[in-house]
Amino acid sequence: MPERISRGNLRQPHPPYLRRTKSSVLAVLVALAVGVMASIVAPPAPAAAACANEVACENAKPGAAPGEWDVAGDGDADIQGFATDISVDRGNRIDFKVDTDARAYSITVYRTGWYQGLGARKITTISPSAPLPQLQPTCRSDASTQLFDCGNWGVSATWNVPATAVSGVYVALLQRADTGGRSHIIFVVRDDDSDSEVLLQTADTTWQAYNGYGGSSFYFGGQNGRSYEASYNRPFSTRADNNGRDFYFSSEYAQVRFLERNGYDVSYLAGVDTDRFGELLLNHQVFISVGHDEYWSGRQRANIEAARDAGVHLQFLGGNDGYWRTRYAPSIDASATAYRTLVCYKETRSNAKIDPSTEWTGTWRDPRFAPTSAGANRPENALIGTLYVANHNDLAVTVSSDEGKLRLWRGTSLTNLAAGSSAQLAPHTIGYESNEDLDNGWRPPGLIRLSTTTGPTPEYLQDYGNTVRPGTTTHHLTLYRAASGALVFSAGSIQWPWGLDQEHDGAGAPADARMQQAQVNLLADMGALATTLQGGLVAATPSTDHTAASAVINAPAAGAQIPNGATVDVTGTASDVGGRVAGVEVSTDGGASWHPATGTTNWSYRYVQHGRGTSDIRVRAIDDSANIPAQPATVATTVIGPFSVFGEQVPAIVDSGDTSGVELGLRFTPTDDGYVSGVRFYKSSLNTGAHVGSLWSPQGERLASVAFADETASGWQRAVFNPAVAVSAGSRYTISYTAPRGHYSVQGNAFWSAGIGYDPLLVDGGFGAPPAAVYGAPGAFPSNSFGSSNYFVDAIFESTDSTPLAATNLRPPGGSTSVPLHTTIGATFLKNVVSASVTFNVADDVGAAVAGTTSYDPTTRTAAFTPNAPLREFVAYSVTLSATPAGSTSPPAQVAAWGFTTVRPTPAPGACPCRLFNDSTTPAVLEVADSAAVTLGVRFTPSVDGTVTGVAFYKGAGNTGQHVGTLWSATGAQLATATFSGESTSGWQTVDFAEPIDVTAGTSYVAAYRTTVGKYSATPGAFSGSGVSYGPLSAGTQAGAYTYGTGFPGNASTTSYLVDVVFEKGADPIAIVSTTPAAGAMGVDRASAISATLSVPITSGYELAVSSRGTAIAGATALSADRTTVTFTPAAPLPNGATINVALTGVRSDSGSVLATKRWSFATVDSTGATTAYSLFGSATPATPATDDGSSVELAVAFQASQPGEITAIRFYKGAGNGGTHTGSLWNDAGDRIASVTFANETETGWQTALLESPVVLEAGQVVVVSYLAPQGRYAATGGYFQNPAANGPLVAPAEGNGRYRYGAGGTLPTSTWNRTNYFVDVLFTTSTLAPVTVTSTSPTSGQQDAATGERVSAQLSATPVAAPTLVVTGPAGAVAGQTAWDAPTNTVSFTPDAPLAWSTPYTATVGVGGQTPPGGTWDFTTRAEPQAVSIFSATAGPARTDWDDATGIQLGVRFTSSVAGVVSGIRFFKVAGDANTHTVRLWAGSGGTALATATSIGETASGWQTVYFAAPVPIDANTEYRASYFTPRGRYAADPGALAEAVVAAPLSTLPVGGVYLYGTGFPSGTAPHNYWADVMFTPGE
């Protein structure tokens, strides 16, 4: 058996079979013996002529009852002994050495066999020759090997074996005269002159391996945990362990009983003898190894192989046979007798060559630590046909109806099994260790399978002998015919003989006549016939079938072109005359190796095509006499490129489970000069992140790299090098890829035995070969190896370079930011091009072309474009490079396209947020040649109190991977940390902390970031002298900071690592919190009071002055009780339709802080109705009141009016820090400035308004751009605002091209846009009062009783109102929370509730215009009753995966049917965190793509199930396909791969197979997938 190995270090003991108790067995056999002896009195010895052979004659003699000769277990410990040799040739002497304190004992010799079922016959009695009591000396021992050798004992008795003795397995029964205690000495009597038909070898080497006499065995004991040497000079202590399963009286005894019962001409030898007397095997027709024959020496196996090759038939009637390789050494007693020490260091268990001999003594199959010449890397199945894999299993040999008709089972009931059925034979006959027929490259040609049993095993071997796991084993009886004509049979199980005879140690069952007949048949086919065939069996004769079966190949067709790496299915038929087809095997490498096909008369075989050029597929059928045809059927094919090592091979372990980032590679050698055009790797579903493939030279230089794109979720991924890389024949290259999050595929022990030898790519393997698969740090050259693992990385090889023209070294790098304005744009072609064809097209973000000059250097293949003028600040530019390949006459075609963004303008001095460096700061060294992980920082000191909101660093394109920014105190305390995201390829990167961190003036801090790949930027000497300072920040001498550890960067340096801090100055001690009316408010009620609220209580002396058109407005001023709010109450209504100017002066806090004069303005309503004033945004506030961009920039909005009027003022929203002088401008669509105004008397924050000196007339439909200059940045913004047009009254700001900006000092029309952002620039527009409005239609309609709960409530007006209307919905609980929206182009006001309305509930809707309700503006409706709906998925069901992120709009859904008709009232879907807040659901007809219903969600939760109901239920038909989908504009969603591959039934609903649907868009979701996207329906049957 293999070493006691398991999931940990020790395998769990398997409950042993209960051996039949000796008392009961002996009682039965004694009774039987008495009965026999009573009826047969002293029969005469049979005459020689009456017997066919010596064994038949011997077994006709009376046997001895087991009670007479057998012992329990190892016998009595007080009398033990051994023979001085394990075997003796008859006619020679054998000595016994006995250790006992008995003064008298007897020695009786018995021969084991059938003997009427009694199992042994008494041969003779021997008297001890030594004086008694004979006290033996202490045995010799060797602590280093745990050898225990009792060869120094004295001889106790001698038996001169008669020359007429019959070869067999003998026991000498030792029995004390005083206590009756007894034990056995077992030995073999050979007949070296015999030419018996059958020669049976005992498994004595295994008996000794398990022999614990002396305290150690090959399985336990001593400092080594096991012995390395086992002596034959000691008694056996083996039978008592595990019910004797590893000793003679288990399987071997059962086999001997069967053979001798049936009168076979058989002789015997020991396992030792097969080594030392191997030539004896050639004297016989059949050689049998039986039972647990686990330990073979090198010469023993060689002699068995030589016998096979000389035509001797072999039967391996055991399992785990020939597993460990051994050698022999002399005894360590004074005699130094050869062959008395069995040596096995079990080097496989030590994972090293530890045997001092050059011979390998590990498992025969282990290739790792010794060459084949030393005995390693020779799997057992090369000889036996099967090899050990399963331990502690307990199964029965099972035969199918087809297998039952094979020749082996002739004469049994198995020949008549019903088609498709199978039969189990005797229990326990597969165990306790068993073999399998594995296609491992060593499988003998022509091997056929004669039975098939599949079942569980608690220990399935995973490697060469060290690791087991629970699994499933598939066992076969096998047979093959060697080239010599010898048949080789493998039972593949230790307990096969238990089916031949019931009497043996261990729990057996009655013998199985079908197995007995099979054994008779097999021996007959090998030329050995039974002479005393037991009743119930049929005499068998050798096979006369010498005609081989024939095979026909149906596919592939002759001449087929097969791509290298493709999976190929070979199919065909086979037939036989005179027998049956028992197996089909296929060769795809010209007959060098053969592999078993599936099926017999109709067969198939699947393989991955390797090699190149002319190839053929060979097939041959083997019949049940194991005849192999001389010529196989052949189909010629051609293998075409491109070429790879692994093709479509699927890894055994797709996901290693290792989560560490790693570079994984494969070393390979081309057989010819050629090109590596790409890289491949096998991906698991969790192997995510950015994958980069690389090709490395033999010296470790990176020759090419490429980022993988358009990857699938799992499986083989491919990326192309452009251009392909030339490689030389015979040079060893490395191909690799980066797995940043691990979860790579792996196959352990892949190259220990052999490499891969298919042209044109070779991979090293075998003993002594350099490692083939390698790994290293992410992005670095991989040079480490582990366990000869294969990581499934592959090269793509081609004879010629077929890659298209491409360019590299793009300048500036694609996706880079902070690009200087005087940059020269360039690239390097990877192939020669026509010089005159090189063309650059450079454009800004609005498509305006950049003028410049193109140049090309054909020597370096470098193209450059120099703009005629500096590029504009903070503008995204696009570049397209086109050219014609050299030698081509085609017009220039696009070769590369990329984009970059220029630097931001330098902020005004003192404007914050503040940084040490500007966006235009660049490093002296873009990428330092350091690939180690490192933390880099800057030590800085603020001169004022404030907060740090984030950190920044300058990045080169090679500084990849995840970056983490951290703020530290000067003493190393971590104050904040954040992970960078959304990085550009190169340039300044910034990350914000979750919360600002307070910092103190004059105190030093360290801002830092960590890179895992090095390649950081640097400017040496930047922090020498006085260092660097800007605004309130300074970094003195040696302000550079770093550490190669993971903590605080405590090392100082004069080098700047281009790390920066984002700093905000502290707020003023006193400030205005809010004003009423708000600055810039419009349509203010003339009776309104005016107030300002301060941040802290103030003292007396303040003044709040109000004026209009230069005239003061009378009123009273008061201070609130908490002294924070100043209120002005006018003595009369404010002027009509006027701009009201307010000034707050003389404000002082209790602590003495003084507030500078604050001014703001607003406009009152025109109560005469003659004119109406409008603005686009009214009193709206931005999502970001002040960005952290401190650069000077002009912000703008384009708009038009639907009716004529006048622009009287310009407005903008001001946030904190948006300082300096602001200038507002109006521009026509030609880009001319038509008006401007300087803002004065601004408030600290809020809307600012500046009246134009003269109103600007605006015609209906005329497009105007309004802008203002923010010289210190910090402008207001709401990203994505212009996803839809903005409108109020007659003013409309279109969505496309809106939200404009232009960096610089102003004076030029802004044209750039980003993310449809609104920068909150506005106008005051007056026009004649519009006609009164009425409500013309509503939804739901007035009085409607079945209104949908999830629909928006809306009303259409007859005309544009004087002010944006409102819509309020009230219910039993009061006003419904929600949002009102006004769509000016359609004159529609709508109300979207924050959550769906309640079921079966009355509501009232009311429209308001200027505080009044227009005619028809109030109506009632009632929501419909909640439907009693069912769904496909339960309310508690949810996805396993919620991390899919396509970052683009996608529609996801499910294909479903219902077994009954009904209605769909809505759709539900599972929302993941981070997805959009609004989704659109649709119900589609399954064919034709018609949308049956659409609805938009409202009141979604952050995640989980969302339900959206349609305006009306949609009827659907029974047994008809429909599709339910939802559209996510954000593209984050849940998906469980493969979960809808099969139908999911929730009656009456059911998904269809391949039930997922999707579309990147809003149309019919035509794409199908087996994935569950967690979309569902709300279905009510029968309505």
UniProtKB/TrEMBL annotation:
InterPro entries: Cu-Rt/internalin_Ig-like (IPR014755), DMFA2_C (IPR046540), DUF4082 (IPR025141), Ig_E-set (IPR014756), SbsA_Ig (IPR032812). Residues 801-902, 1068-1164, 1332-1423 form the SbsA Ig-like domain. Residues 649-793, 921-1059, 1180-1321, 1437-1574 form the DUF4082 domain. The keyword Signal applies. Signal peptide: none annotated. Residues 107-503 form the N,N-dimethylformamidase beta subunit-like C-terminal domain. SUPFAM superfamilies: E set domains. The keyword Cytoplasm does not apply. Keywords: Signal. Pfam families: Big_5, Big_7, DMFA2_C, DUF4082. It comes from the Bacteria. This is Ig-like domain-containing protein. The lineage of its organism: Bacteria, Bacillati, Actinomycetota, Actinomycetes, Micrococcales.
